[in-house]
Amino acid sequence: MVAYGKPAAVAASELQVSLQLQSDYVDPSLNFINRNEETMPANPSLKKRSEKGLLTPDNCVVAIIDLQPQMLFGVANFDRQAIINNNVALSKAARVFGVPVVLSTVETKSFSGNMWPQIQNIFPNQEPIERTSMNSWDDKNFVAAIEKTGRKKIVLTGLWTETCVALPTVQAIHDGYEIYVVEDCCGDVSQLNHDNAMKRVIQAGAKPVTALSTMLEWQRDWAERDTYDSVMDIVKTHFGAYGMGVEYAYTMIHGAAATKLPEWIFPPATSAH
Asked: Based on the domain organization, do 98 and 172 belong to the same domain?
């Protein structure tokens, strides 16, 4: 069962979410801890999680493929705003747990556009690996970036499911990797295309997961205090009724102060766009 508040033994005063961690800064635009690092090594403060077939922060790499405007325009099987939301949640979780992330884009200038700013803002010092190939596994720079992490489990998200997700998944499995396709972060031009792609990757050996299930698998134990508050911040920001349940439990049951979000400041009008 997923907990909505901290363990009962924890005093109510400790329930308030704190994003202040040593040597981190808070980016107000994200309301999220933003570590100013070009690479993201495993968080040395994390307690070792048991593996036994599960994802842990130190046994996987996240691959984020072709989250670009033109690719999102074509998605018709799933709510597009939800796809953005879920990918942002997964990206933030990767930062919290120090999981390496490989970003990649295709034909940015000629067709697809830049990687979504919501994603790039979470990884401000990472340049996406630019490709011409639909299949990222055909790109030597992408494969080299995955290999450099030394990890054999890939948590993979991208658009569209039938090409930019399915093709690298099938070939990476062939090359000895375990692939976890984050299905609610993916989308395609129709439900049939998406469903057939998921059937194909599952038949090839991939495991379907979601953004939330991946984050909770990394967290594993609510007693792990070093990531708890950041995980709860992601839940409250991105996971709807679950997040509202957390806020309710904090304030109504445990007597914690209500969450304070940064004041929204609207951009000034400009004469040209």
From this structure: yes
